[in-house]
Amino acid sequence: MSSYKELLAQREQLDKQIKEAVLREKADGIAKAKIIIEQYDLTASDLFSRKAGARSSSGKVAPKYRNPSTGDTWTGRGKAPKWIEGRDRSNFLI
Q: What three-state secondary structure class fits 91?
């Protein structure tokens, strides 16, 4: 059975090997990506642009319900406001 100090030394050596492997594999991945980018003449917008129909990053959602007496709106997500709780929601659709 290994002693505590021996195990710590082994862990230190493994941590070093892990860091080296990550750096090696990352460099390999970058090299492969560069080859593909050059081969297909890709741009940053080709790689990172949002596809049609993708959600917006702002997280804004159009309101779905409106309180006719106050004009307050609700998207239908999250906890329902008091003015619509327990009521037929179809009456409040926008």
A: helix
Residue 56 lies in a domain: no
Same-domain check for residues 66 and 42: no
Give a three-class secondary structure readout of 11-56. Answer: HHHHHHHHHHHHHHHHHHHHHHHHHHHHHHCCCHHHHHCCCCCCCC
In 3D, which of 67, 70, 69, 71 has the Cα closest to residue 93?
A: 67
The pair of three-digit structure tokens given for residue 9, joined into one six-digit string: 């030394």
pLDDT in tens, the chain (94 residues): 889 999 999 999 999 999 999 999 999 999 999 999 999 999 988 888 776 555 555 678 899 999 999 999 999 999 999 999 999 999 999 9
- pTM value is 0.46
Distance CA 81, CA 83 (A): 6
What is the span of the domain harbouring residue 11? 4-48
